[in-house]
Write a structure and sequence with these properties.
The chain is an alpha/beta fold. The protein contains eight helices and seven strands, in the order E-H-E-H-E-H-E-H-H-E-H-H-E-H-E. Helix content is 38%, strand content 18%. Helix 5 runs parallel beside helix 7 and helix 7 packs across helix 8.
Amino acid sequence: MGRKFFVGGNWKCNGTGEEVKKIVSTLNAGEVPSTDVVEVVVSPPFVFLPLVKNTLRPDFHVAAQNCWVKKGGAFTGEISAEMLVNLDIPWVILGHSERRLLLNESNEFVGDKVAYALSKGLKVIACVGETLEQRESGSTMEVVAAQTRAIADKVSNWANVVLAYEPVWAIGTGKVATPAQAQEVRDTFLLIEFMFISINWTLICCFVSL
């Protein structure tokens, strides 16, 4: 059975308590199709997770923006998967381009994080995508395939994973990713599935960042 249409919103490191309340109020008043058709997930900063979860309409879900690769301990500033489960947060974003580029998270490290989060009962939005330099060098498919394969090497059951294609090259560059370019990358996913792994690819993922 195919996955329903998926819409995710990443709020990144933005917002105050009052601003978050206004955003939630706007979301609560929005009109969306039946939950049989679409799944909506929003991802506020960690400090606002309880506020959003407690005030957001029940047919929308909440995701954390990251979690640590293993059980908690002496890892200052990190958030463990166990903490998110304790807060009853169902989703987490992993492999976001900003963490890959700014914090040097490797493909293998992201794969480990995805596997650990899944093992603790979280659902994962796993981000993949290429930079402008990588796209202009013609290595889009190679990059996205490597990112996906690093996750596939650690994950056998993809039922609770959504792959979110993030065209990093179109963020802040003035360039726009077209539907055809996104479809091109999805075709690469299909080839990866055919050659290596079994994934539920009948999803369409719309992932928006603030």
